Amino acid sequence: MSDLFNPYIEYLDLDTAPKCPTYYELLGISNSNECTHALVENGRVTSLAKIRAFKPGANAAVWAAVLDEVALASTTLLDSDLKTTYDNQLTAGEIPAKLDLVQRLGPIERIDAVSASSAESVSPVDSMAPSHLQSGAATSVRVAATQPVVPTAVAVPVAAPIATAAPVEVAIPIARTVPPLPDMAEPFEQSQSAGGFSGPQIRRKRRRSSRKTSSPLPLYAGIGLFLLIGGAAFVFWGFDNVSQADKTKHDLQRPSDSQLARNPPKPNIAGTPTKPASPNVDPPKPRLPATPLEEPLDPVPPEFGDPQNPKPNPPTDSGENTPPVEPMPEEPKPAPKPIEPAELVELSAALKLGRAALSDRNLDISSEQLAIAEPLARSGEPQKAFVRLKSMHEFLTQFMRLSNDAIDNYETGAVIEIGTSTKVSVVETPPLALTIHVAGSDKTYSRNGLPSGLAMGIANANFEESDYKSTLKAAFLITQKTLHDYEEEKAREFWKMGPESMELFEGYISDDYEFAPKPLEPTELVELSAALKLGRAALSDRNLDITAEQLAIAEPLARSGEPQKAFNRLKTMHEFMVQFMRLSNEAIDNYKSGSEIRISKSNTVVVVETTPLALTIHVAGEDKTYLRNELSTGLAIGIADQNFAESKYKSTLKAAFVITQKTLRDFEVTKAREFWEMGPESVELFEGYISDDYEFTAE
Length: 699
What we know:
alpha+beta
């Protein structure tokens, strides 16, 4: 098949031509101003279910690309910053892009209900693992890095036009018109009349023909004449010539290798190929192997889905004239914003309510509370507690889904084994309950209120075997409203059989979601102040290892208030300096003797030598050597201007180098402030770092 199609119509029943659908349209959200976490989650699940209702087939690459686009849409709309940027692009008319059709590579078939149900249960990785553990999950828990990294400039992906695969012109042979074959299903009597003759007429005509040709004399005369001519020819040419003629005739009748290749022996009914008619035919000569392609063909148009930067051609000059590759800076991400006391109160309430809803098996309310807690749980212990609760919510969601599927498939009289000696029989399975016959009487349980023994029996008999089967059973037990000691021990045994860490299990048991920061004791304030002062001094000396050690000492002490803000400012400057020194050292390593470094519009110096720890330059008629950790301000900024890749954090890195020097002059502060204002970071961070003296008073 070679026709073009719109994958959004095929897979999502969504027609937005002549443009691609927006992220809101992909998720079925009609009003962008009323876009809530629940709407996005429901839209993502619904859209993915629609797409997965089709077999990937020959169009698997396009099918997967639409799946990825739906996941990207939910990720973007769940992140407030990404959503704001995306909405601005929508308002400006930059997106969505023009819709192009893609080439259909094969039939698009729906999955029937039975196969879809089977596929859902057979895939333990996608169906049992929580979303935050799966690769490519649409929503992920933001875990703070141990050290901030400059955030990469985020270009919000838009629904890129679906590129049309270039049609290939194929020479189509013009077939001759062939009359249709007679329908073999018709009664045989319908074909007994030919040329207007009936059956008796045909028989009489055959009898007359046989009488006309019944004389044998002409036949005998012809045979005799042929024998005379043949005998004369044999005598004339001789036996040898006749043998040679026979050999030549045989060679002419033998099929060539190319003919054998074009017309291979047809298989017989048993499925094995029949031998050629001539037993003396030589086997076809093997053809030379085809030259392999240099690069495999990409089955998907490169323009489909997210825009991709074209791959640069490799340099053709492999000699010394090839310029060094310009290093790309790794933009560090600043430390997360500290959690304010009011936010801690709101976070604590959301997590407590979410846990209570989880115990009541009210997964919708639990999901809503997790959505409230997610932007508040930015770092530290609150974030870890949030991750633990979300993990248990994901595990229980999977358990309840698989359990309900199993109950739906039970028939009256089906037996469920509970433990090693108890068996119950199924009486009825209404949509919200399960009725069983046990101990001589019928008992009905809400599907959200199954006792632990019955739930474990259903899981043991129906859940697919996988690494997460025992984890799901443990999650069911540990999230119950009333947890007995023996159930906790059994849950711990189940948990150890799965792939998850015991830290998650034990942490969930002990979580009480009380996050009020503990006031700093006077001795802690003294220790914190000393660590921050020593860390700042080491940063000025470019001794980044000692700074990192002191920050590690200070982090557990800087729990709240001004001490925490001062700690975050120092940690951020340390991260910027780590990036600056790394890029600077890479640039110096690539310098050769005679390379020029432009320090200002009118001042250029020449590189004399580069050693692992130093840089020697020729300036003002003499050679000067600088340790790499003690470069002068002008020389360091010149190296950065000439070698650092352009990004929004380039000016921020230069400002960090200047402002963290041991001796800071007024004009350098002014220049650093100019650099800082050109970048994305807040001026409050810059001014706060300048004024920090790390003298804290007790709260």
